[in-house]
Design a protein that fits this description.
Blueprint lengths: L1 H15 L9 E14 L4 E2 L1 E15 L2 E16 L5 E9 L2 E8 L2 E17 L2 E2 L7 E13 L2 E10 L13 E10 L1 E2 L1
Antiparallel strand pairs: 1-3, 1-11, 1-12, 2-4, 3-4, 4-5, 4-6, 5-7, 6-7, 7-8, 7-9, 9-10, 10-11
């Protein structure tokens, strides 16, 4: 019985998983998700946040696509050294990724992600003057698409320092889990 269920699940996945975009095809996917983020400074810990936006993908070759997105992303961290004070930063992030499809519906991805600071608050107080306006990250991850629903898991390595002196220079680190619905144009 277990073998029959496994075979049925594999066949169902093969039938319902959508392959990557065809060469020359464009798709759009409105997306919402969770961020688990921190700023790499002393005593900073990961904290949960959210993001919302959309991705567009263009099929370059049979197994390769190029995607670009625009996201409103809440990030920041929790400071365990000062009574669990939370720093919240809001960015407009623009991830530009190469998506390589290793299997029907399964892609590995990597690229660059410029981010533009919208706001920065620490325990409810505006601290935007202590934050740099631009952030650059390197996102890497995987995604899986089934019946036009795309689930994406990424890790964004911060490249640029996001804090101004006299504070320690910190970089954003973000784990992102998102889901979206893909529309082919």
């Amino acid at each position: 019985m277990k073998k029959l269920l496994v075979v049925a699940a594999i066949l169902f996945g093969a039938v319902t998983a959508n392959a990557q975009n065809e060469v020359g095809q464009i798709s759009i996917a409105p997306t919402i998700g969770l961020n688990y983020a921190k700023i790499t400074m002393d005593k900073q810990k990961f904290a949960p946040f959210f993001e919302v936006g959309a991705n567009a993908e263009y099929g370059l070759m049979e197994k390769l696509g190029l995607s670009a997105g625009v996201f409103y992303s809440l990030q920041g961290s929790k400071d365990d050294g000062h009574g669990d004070i939370k720093t919240k930063t809001a960015y407009i992030n623009v991830p530009i990724l190469a998506n390589y499809y290793v299997w029907n519906g399964l892609a590995v991805k990597a690229g660059i992600q410029p981010g533009y600071l919208i706001s920065a608050k620490r325990d409810g107080t505006d601290v935007k003057d202590y934050a740099k306006k631009f952030d650059l990250g390197i996102p890497v991850g995987v995604s899986y698409e089934i019946s036009n629903v795309v689930v994406d898991l990424r890790y964004v390595f911060g490249v640029t320092n996001v804090t101004k002196k006299p504070y320690d220079e910190g970089k954003n680190q973000v784990i992102q889990l998102t889901a979206g619905y893909k529309f082919k144009l």
